[in-house]
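Sat 14:20. Reprocessing the chain from the morning session after the first attempt stalled halfway. Input below, unchanged.
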Amino acid sequence: MTAVENDLPPGETDAEMAAHIRPLVNEILEMFNQRQISPSEAGMVVLSMTYRLLEVLQETPAARRHFILTLINLINNYLADELQGDLAAKSESVQEELLTP
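Finished this time. Tokens:
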């Protein structure tokens, strides 16, 4: 991968890039299904690819920062959604306890 390949094409947004790579992602997921790759094995593949990408992106600090920030945002949003779900479940449980005679 060259430095030029690491950056978004001129004018391409994250949403456009996501639409562009969606078919590749679907092919990889289909391959995982065909090979009966477990979720934990798929996770290791993703972590390994992330590590390799971070090594390659050392040559382009701006692209590396963008990738890291995108990854952090993904994880933060996921955890926030889980926390909201946990809080909603606890709230419902407390309401049931209060309403039960």
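The helical segments are 3-6, 14-34, 39-56, 61-99.
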